[in-house]
Please model this.
Amino acid sequence: MNDQLQQRISLDPKLMLGKPVIRGPRIPVEIIVRMLAQGIPESDILREYPRLQPDDIRAALAYAAQVLAHEDVFALTVSA
Model:
């Protein structure tokens, strides 16, 4: 994630139990990603959260992608 986007994300154990939030308005990254996954247009998200900027939404997606890129995946076998 580039530095400009990374600066928009805050991880603070005192805020939202340490979940990543958008710095400033403190909107959880998870909420933004969920709204996008539900098909809510970016313009509607920005209208719902007027303190958000378009780059905040991009930062939330970049953060989610970075977390998934570092996720360990283990194959499960099913015994018969």
In short: The CA atoms of residues 72 and 78 lie 19 Å apart.
